[in-house]
Amino acid sequence: MKLWAGRFTKEENAxxxxxxxxxxxxxxxxxxxxxxxxxxxxxxxxxxxxxxxxSEKIVAGLKEILADIESGKLPFDWxxxxxxxxxxxxxxxxxxxxxxxxxxxxxRNDQVAVDIRLYLKEEISQIMALARAFIAVLLNKxxxxxxxxxxxxxxxxxxxxxxxGHHLLAYVFMLLRDIDRLQDCLxxxxxMPLGSGALAGTTYPIxxxxxxxxxxxDRPCENSLDGVSxxxxxxxxxGDLSILMMHLSRFSEEIVLWCSWEFKFxxxxxxxxxxxxxxxxxxxxxxxxxxxxxxxxxxxxxxxxLSMMKNLPLAYNKDAQEDKQAIFDAxxxxxxxxxxxxxxxxxxxxxxxNMSRAAxxxxxxxxxxxxxxxxxxxxxxxxxxxTGQIVAYCIEQNKTLETLSLDEYKGFSQAFDQDIFKAVDxxxxxxxxxxxxxPSRQSVEKQIELAKKALQQGE
Length: 459
Known about the structure:
Layout: H1 14-20, H2 23-26, H3 30-46, H4 52-71, H5 83-95, H6 97-100, H7 108-144, E1 149-154, E2 157-163, H8 164-189, E3 191-192, H9 208-215, E4 219-220, H10 224-229, H11 232-259, E5 266-267, H12 286-309, H13 323-347, E6 349-350, H14 352-359, H15 366-375, H16 380-397, H17 406-410, H18 420-423, H19 426-431, H20 441-458
Parallel strand pairs: 3-4
Antiparallel strand pairs: 1-2, 5-6
Helix pairs in contact: 3-4, 3-7, 3-9, 4-5, 7-8, 7-13, 7-20, 8-11, 8-20, 11-12, 11-13, 12-13, 15-16
């Protein structure tokens, strides 16, 4: 019999039971449900709402149930409506009347609200740890390739020379922002709804501040209606995870490009690539492609949560049960992607020669040629036009800025002198970019230092 069956004269339809039940997915919160119940029972005993001796029996019983679940001695009852009912029913089976006192001064509405916050707090900490591990790998690669020149792109066209280390650091700072967003989300999530009751609190003299302290929350929520119906923290987390996945997807797209024969800047380790069922020569970057695909999945989870909440009146509605599958899927997907992309990048091979050859083509030092003329006194727009004419000439003559003669340069402007060859040298182009945040080795090493400090401060 359902624990809420007193009002009803008929048994629940079997199909409705299956439709209504959530234990198949909320069972993962068993530890948090027991944790919340232990804190609640402790508070009930300390405030005299139930006898202290009964409170202690309930706490002991809950700890035994936790141990039995984790050892495998107590399997989940898939016929139970949810994890909350399963644990309370098991406690009552073991303790009899004493077990029935646990639910005094609380509702499943505030119970599930506290469980999911406790669960997601732990998951956020794990995701941040995984992101930091990925950042550490990127920083090692960036340090190793602080001087490895490759073309930087805009519109997927070769634009200006940078270093591979500089390129990787762009993703480091994206991920640092992701961690920062998750930390902010954690702050807003760390408010306890337990004690809100079904929606209107309780007439019992509960101590919500004690319970909040026992569970590691900053404080109890200020409004009982908001406490049971708020799922902002799920939506915010799904939004933060969507941005994180977008960053991983952008990186994965570059991995896919760089692995192609058209680029061949890197090669993935065999352990992180797959082959073709028909073409024996193929080595496919499936991991990166799957991360791109799974990004859309996390976006879908965010859309599910937003759509679910958009027209719910206060306070709790059963629609909110759909929050768990969506946010659980988002969390699981992000963790899986971070766990996989980190060793993939750590073990990939970098072809520095191919990067260097690509940088030598495409006139990516044209801006430096224009800057050379500007420093000689020409207005930038005039220098820009002259350099464009030189590039057109080089294309026609199948030459590069490095292979033109000084006489050819002077044919476009008498401002050119022998120093132009140093100015358009790719190494000079990169190392001369000493502006804060630029690609020079000095700047890259500074960025690495800043990123490492940010990592240490966030731990």
